[in-house]
Fold:
Amino acid sequence: SVAAIQKYDVSADHVFTEKDWNDWSAVSKGDAYGVAKTTAEELVHSHFSKDDGRTAAAVNPGVVIGPVMNKSHTKASAYFLYACIMGKKAMNFPCTFVDVRDVAIGHVNALERLPDVHGGRHLLVNDDGCLDTGAIGLGEIATKVFPEYKFDIKPLHPEHLMMIARPLSCLPFVGGKIMNEYQRKAQSTPVHFDNSLTKSKLGFQFRPLEVTVKEGIESIVENGFAEFQKK
Structure:
């Protein structure tokens, strides 16, 4: 996961690569997820560095969206597309997306290239970069692709409330009850990645985000998991 790479103690213009490790996250900061992803990947690399008979490589995807195969998929990260269709609330933090089909290709290509990519890390994020408004930005793309339908996705945490909550969360004693350090950083910090090594080492190009949004939404509707909302 990119959660094992990105961190929040670097400059705003920092571009993350496979050389970066997330040594910022901590349970005390509210980011148990980042700790788990980083620790798990470190254990994998440590184990296989001592194993003479087997090899391994890591793939590190961003937020995975795209076509779904069953309804349960709309309750994972593809929920962002479902929320666009149905006008639901969704997290509006800055994030970078990747098509689920590109994640599959990344895994297969990495396996096929072992042992040459043994010990390597491979960022799986598309070329469109970070969407500062996260899932809200997906709604804007969906509106462009399907202009005849309404995509009234709503921010789970409206910015006018965040403008109040962020400074209050820095207060001693009571601040942590409003928002922890991870939430405060993740809500307002765009994160940028360089995926050039992955494209070079694993030999493929990422689908444009617009294609991912279009075909992901079409799969949700065609499978009967949601219905387009007319304007």
Observations:
- Residues 32-49 form the longest helix (18 residues).
- The mean pLDDT is 95.
- DSSP finds nine helices and ten strands in the chain.
